[in-house]
Amino acid sequence: MKGISLHSVVPVRTEARETAEMSTQILFAEQCEILAEQARWYQVRLCQDGQEGWVDKKMLTPLSAEEEQKLPAEATAMVLMPMAYAVSENNGQTIPLTAGTRLCNYNDGRFELLGVGFRIDPSMVLTASLPLDEPHLLQAVRFFLNIPYLWGGKNAMGMDCSGFTQVVLSLFGKHLLRNASEQATQGTEVNGLEDAQAGDLAFFCKPQTNHANHANHANNGTITHVGILIDKQRIIHCSGRVKVEKIDATGIFSIEQADAQHPQGQYTHQLLSIRRY
Prior knowledge:
mainly beta; 5-stranded antiparallel β-sheet; 23 strands; 12% helix; 38% strand
């Protein structure tokens, strides 16, 4: 049996309790498989990226076989801006929708879900994937700047690093898995920054204390972070908040981390690999 979210954002937790860690989120109209139930919780697997976890039953709507059959396999239209608003034609209520939310049966500012029609500003909707190049990337990501970091988040009120890359690249027609380590298994390897281009993902581990030996031990690092390259010198990523910082062969160099010992700033993430999708 499948379920669907009729809420803007639904938390998915690692265990069947409110205080458990949030591992990801389900966006409006996103479907999942219901694997099991426990008291007031459903164990689910997200159809989009295969992530599993627990969702409060009252925040998920089970689908009948007939309803499931009527829903399109994949909606092509999606919300472009970090935040947009849809208005129900049934009761006039407003629903906030975040970037990457897919809209079923969309046509000229109207979409329909389970027999309910909604209106939305067409300027907030992307009806075809953007070309993945520097001008379009800069146009899309500028609206995400300063969204705060939130572990497990993938919406305009809070994102983690891989939630940010997953949502942004979905606007360009790229289907990424949820976590940084999983995203690093997709795409093709790029031979360093000299061959990188806008839209490539860069993966990082925590910085080493001795950068002189970087080349010898970088590949032994564990992936802890991911960001999107704007060009060979700049990266946009979510660390504390979504921001643009400098990158070189060593990693991300942050002027925000300047202190008495490092008056010009310091490296916060050590570069491990670059991949193209």
